[in-house]
Design goal:
The protein has about 400 residues and is an alpha/beta fold. It is built from 15 helices and twelve strands. The strands form two sheets. Strands 1, 2, 3, 4, 5, 6, 7, 11 and 12 form a nine-stranded mixed beta sheet that branches. Strands 8-10-9 form a three-stranded antiparallel beta sheet.
Length: about 400
Amino acid sequence: MSSLEKSMMKNKLPPRMPRTSGVSKLAPFGISRRKDYTPVSWKNYFEKYVDIEIDAGIFRVYLSPEPDHPQRPRIVTLHGGGYSALSWSLFTEEITNMIHCQVVSMDIRGHGETKAVDPDDLSIETLVKDVEQVLHKLFGSELPPLILLGHSMGGAIAVRTGHIPSLQLAVQGVAVIDVVEGTAMEALASMQSFLRSRPTHFKSIEHAIEWCIRSGQVRNVESARVSMPSQIVNCVTGELATNEVEDYKAVESPLEPTARGRRDDVIAEEGEGEMEGGESTAEQKGDGGPFTKPSPVDGNMRYRWRVDLSRSERHWSGWFSGLSGSFLSTPAPRLLLLASVDGLDRDLTVGQMQGKFQMQVLTRCGHAVHEDTPSEVARVVASFALRHRLTIPTETGEDMNLISAPGC
């Protein structure tokens, strides 16, 4: 069973909401479970953003600082369905400390701050064309070396983009995170049920972040604090919650905050998405908590999802169908990162035995591998880039022995 399927099974019922009527009722969670769910600005991780206008619309791209040399690789990060470019925030800080590179993180159409002419057209052909046009508009005719790095749906886009003739000479590596054709196609049967299990609205940005952690969507609190606001919009203004972070005033939280920890040391405890009592959200009527499914007239629910993924169902099979064969035939060097070794399908198992790609299995993480363990993902990607002589390590990276990082 893939980590995505395990996540769906675990989240069949939404987590029971935390009570806010008294601190004493939170005693079972213990002191170690008190976390800070206050949102964090993307400016802590990226230098700037640019809005790239192409025929299909205006696409938001976040950029880390320019590398020390124009021929250093640009790592183009492509997020999964429902996520955004800011899901790569912590990874960006880590990877740029290890090797000389620039991270180019793009909001795919229908997501984040990107404003497409037809945001509902999420066919794989359209998404690949978007990436191609954005990269050409961003860099012009002189494309720098590119490493395409994608998570889930973004991994499918990265693989197909690696075959585009106008980009093939520039693409020096393709890395895919936790997406395999066989297990992805099997998981699609449960996707609608999974989406229906999620809350439709949230009282505040903090409550959305708290749900993100307690449900297990992301296990790293620090990552959720910067990525989750980019996945919800204000019901009144229609603007992305990210725009409110700079002036955000914390609401009363049922849990007391603690100091921010290291990147991979703030992962939610095992089973934190399963609240005590095992009650579903439907059994919590009258609690007025942040995780209920409100009526449209409930004025307390200020935020809703930016993307209605259920409307994109007609495109799901197209994202993953033929993915394994396309990955194995990609001209550039290939890297596959998984959250579970049992996620390989037959084609990839044979390909891995034949040494056609580098594979790394990371533990202590869920489907959002790059958010849960950004340091480990950055280390693997940095080692991949160094092994293929695409860049050189930074002073910090030189002390990390990156070239000998484990892989198989």
